[in-house]
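User: I've been trying to design a sequence by hand for this structure and keep getting stuck. Would you show me what you'd pick, starting by listing the structure so we're on the same page?

Assistant: Good idea, let's start from the same input. This is the structure you sent:
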């Protein structure tokens, strides 16, 4: 047996030290900031609190066999979950969530974050050693600076992106090998892994590599000389390596493309400049990042940044290499400053939150430039002493201290204001509430939603966590047609990629099967549920009008597009298309303006007898998502209405035997100095007599499934006549349907937010199963590519052995 040589053992020990040091520094940061598990400041912040923790909980359920990886009804009526998996959850680190109890997932996130930092340190150290062959103290200093750069520290709240920093150095070394040695395999495999772990950051990385490989090529031809043949050869090899990487990852990449291609709306570009000069300068300085300002996270250690800048004035470096370095640096800085460039880097979409998403690219490029500068110092005998351990070690200690101080300042801004104790209390209460409902109601299908959330003004995905069907969805990987329908019907702002169930809406709740609502105030038309307990902090209300998953509908619903208008007119049109005749569930209420000023607008509204009064704010088209108003309905005040998550139909008053008078006002929202001037309030009344008559009619033709679970619906449906069965399931090409054993076609309805089936008179046995579009084709492509690469490798080895 061959023993590992001394050099190999030293390298292993060195990489182990890199890993251990980064983990230890991370733990020290948590202890200093009193962050869980070393204090009560929750590690959950921003979207980690609003989205990702619920996604991890769902993935844990998938791994334990409690949920379906391919499809879920726990978000926005239903969705293909492959995009959710490939965007948020594909990291192999996430497999560890199965080892943690459901109530300890915050600890799981903390653990994988520490592990990822350690792996970034290893991969970047490996890259610097392989690419520049520096001393180990120098390697440690540079790789530590990259690992704990401001971008990484600020994005611990976004752990799905961190894997990219582990793989980027390997991709970069693949570019170096391709240019210098004509080897493609490292770049192929690293690209494939990048796509498999998170396609979004893989896109950013691949775009960067297209620029970075040019720098390596310029540096190479500065030494070896330029020729068009050489450039064509390397360009084809690079394109081939990226293409092979994509083909190798096709098993996940192809179904992801099909799942995500429907996509959310492409937002309009904002101001050309994303930040101010002051904030831009702050982005390069330690301890100067501000979470509520557009401060790019460029800082990556003073020593590394100075070394990187020194490359530009080092005359021993080719002028071509220095120019290329400067050009790429300018592009990377501009990408966090100019909206059009940011738009390109972020997949032709304007990012919503997490400013300066590409700043880690500049930190990596600084790593490359600093490594190059130190390599050149090695070549100068008079300067060799400058980077010996006696000098490097104090610089390393200084770097560790300044990186820790910078991270501590950032964490004090991020991990504050939300305690782990509050999180645990919320999770426990929510779990108990949902469990009580599920124990009480054994029906195969019903939906539950809630107006209370883990944090104010945040749409959540709690249904994924606890295994119930809800309308709310806060994800970049949902069914966009379903979300668009929900928002157009009054659940959230039109044009938003998410929807939040901020207030029950009786008529559309009934149609979509929302049987239980967990709300702070008693919703009109609902009754108190039997599950309510005296000591419960969550009140549950039951909707007696809730329909099942399917109802008979007229042919008008097939391939239908709802009329334009406000949510009330949309609901009128939807019910009309279902029934095949014009119905007027809602009638407009005339409101009298009693005050009209720049800071307050007020109306007097009379709600007719036997009607539920509602209002909705049509937002000023120029106001965007982040210009709310304060809405007051009699004595009830909603602090932020008509903004990103809160632009909902709001209840004015429950039905009464006589008309009732109410006062409605909008004013300046908290934290704002004025309000949109063109916001329009519309007032409507739901006629209960008409509504109850319609629901009674629809209940006579319900499809009540015997099996309703993620990715599968089964049941018997008796149709009175030939016609359509409307399903409150979003249209999706992945559904395979049989009726009485014969294949049937699912057709879109209501702008593809719902779907329908043609039924024949009499008994119909319906079976619906979901298969991820593109999964089998992608797997076949991946296997074929892997087989081709193995065959090519064996052929090359055989050819070399015969020489």
């Amino acid at each position: 047996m061959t023993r590992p040589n001394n050099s190999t053992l030293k390298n292993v020990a060195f990489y182990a030290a890199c890993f251990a040091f980064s983990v230890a520094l991370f733990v020290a940061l948590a202890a200093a900031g009193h962050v869980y598990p070393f204090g009560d400041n929750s590690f959950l912040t921003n979207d980690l609190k609003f989205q990702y923790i619920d996604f991890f909980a769902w993935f844990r359920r998938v791994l334990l066999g409690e949920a379906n990886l391919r499809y879920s009804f726990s978000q926005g009526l239903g969705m293909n979950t492959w995009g959710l998996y490939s965007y948020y959850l594909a990291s192999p680190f996430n497999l560890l969530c199965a080892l943690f109890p459901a109530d300890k997932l915050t600890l799981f996130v903390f653990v994988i974050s520490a592990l990822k930092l350690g792996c970034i340190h290893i991969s970047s150290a490996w890259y610097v050693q392989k690419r520049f062959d520096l001393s180990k103290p120098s390697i440690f200093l540079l790789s530590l600076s990259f690992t704990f750069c401001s971008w990484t520290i600020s994005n611990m709240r976004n752990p799905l992106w961190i894997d990219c920093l582990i793989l980027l150095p390997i991709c970069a070394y693949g570019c170096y090998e391709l240019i210098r040695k004509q080897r493609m395999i490292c770049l192929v495999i690293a690209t494939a892994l990048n796509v498999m772990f998170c396609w979004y950051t893989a896109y950013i990385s691949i775009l960067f590599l297209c620029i970075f490989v040019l720098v390596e090529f310029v540096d190479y031809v500065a030494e070896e000389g330029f020729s068009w043949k050489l450039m064509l050869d390397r360009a084809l090899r690079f394109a081939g390596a990226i293409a092979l990487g994509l083909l190798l990852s096709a098993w996940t990449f192809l179904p992801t493309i099909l799942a995500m291609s429907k996509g959310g709306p492409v937002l309009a570009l904002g101001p050309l400049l994303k930040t101010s000069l002051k904030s831009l300068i702050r982005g390069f300085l330690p301890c100067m990042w501000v979470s509520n300002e557009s401060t790019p996270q460029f800082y990556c250690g003073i020593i590394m940044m100075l070394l990187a800048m020194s490359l530009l004035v080092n005359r021993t470096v080719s002028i071509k290499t220095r120019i290329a370095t400067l050009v790429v640096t300018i592009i990377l800085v501009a990408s966090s400053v100019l909206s059009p460039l940011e738009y390109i880097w972020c997949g032709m979409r304007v990012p919503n939150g997490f400013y300066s998403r590409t700043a880690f690219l500049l930190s990596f490029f600084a790593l490359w430039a600093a490594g190059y500068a130190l390599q050149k110092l090695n070549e100068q005998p008079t300067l060799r002493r400058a980077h010996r351990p006696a000098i490097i070690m104090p610089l390393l200690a200084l770097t560790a201290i300044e990186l820790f101080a910078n991270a501590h300042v950032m964490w004090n801004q991020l991990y504050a204001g939300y305690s782990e104790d509050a999180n645990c209390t919320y999770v426990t209460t929510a779990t108990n509430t949902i469990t009580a409902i599920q124990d009480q109601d054994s029906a195969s299908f019903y939906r539950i939603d809630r107006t209370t959330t883990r944090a104010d003004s945040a749409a959540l995905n709690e249904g994924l966590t606890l295994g119930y069907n809800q309308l709310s969805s806060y994800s970049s990987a949902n069914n966009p047609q379903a979300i668009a329908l929900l928002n157009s019907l009054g659940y959230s702002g039109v044009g938003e990629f998410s929807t939040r169930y901020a207030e029950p809406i009786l008529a559309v709740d009934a149609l979509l099967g929302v049987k239980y609502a967990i709300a702070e105030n008693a919703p009109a038309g609902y009754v108190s549920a039997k599950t309510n307990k005296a000591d419960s902090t969550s009140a549950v209300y039951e909707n007696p009008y809730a329909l099942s998953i399917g109802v008979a509908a007229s042919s008008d619903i097939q391939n239908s597009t709802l009329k334009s208008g406000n949510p009330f007119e949309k609901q009128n049109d939807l019910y009309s298309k279902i029934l095949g005749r014009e119905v007027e569930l809602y009638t407009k209420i005339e409101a009298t303006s009693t005050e009209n000023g720049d800071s307050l607008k007020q109306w007097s509204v009379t709600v007719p007898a036997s009607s539920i009064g509602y209002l909705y704010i049509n937002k000023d088209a120029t106001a965007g998502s982040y210009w709310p108003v304060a809405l007051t309905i009699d004595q009830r005040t909603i602090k932020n209405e008509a903004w990103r998550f809160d632009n909902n139909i709001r209840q004015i008053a429950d039905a009464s035997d006589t008309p009732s008078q109410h006062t409605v006002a909008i004013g300046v929202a908290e934290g704002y100095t004025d309000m949109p001037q063109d916001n329009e309030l519309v007032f409507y009344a739901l006629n209960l007599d008409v509504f109850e008559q319609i629901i009674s009619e629809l209940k006579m033709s319900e499809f009540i499934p015997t099996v309703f679970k993620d990715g599968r619906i089964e049941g018997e449906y008796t149709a009175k006549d030939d016609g359509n069965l409307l399903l409150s399931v979003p249209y999706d090409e992945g559904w395979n349907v049989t009726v009485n054993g014969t294949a049937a076609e699912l057709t879109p309805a209501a702008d593809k937010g719902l779907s329908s089936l043609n039924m024949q008179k009499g008994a119909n046995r319906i079976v619906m199963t979901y298969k991820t579009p593109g999964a089998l084709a992608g797997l076949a492509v991946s296997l074929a590519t892997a087989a081709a690469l193995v065959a090519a490798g064996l052929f090359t080895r055989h050819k070399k052995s015969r020489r």
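That's my pick for every position. To get oriented when you compare it with your attempt: The chain has a mean pLDDT of 91. The CA atoms of residues 43 and 110 lie 7 Å apart.
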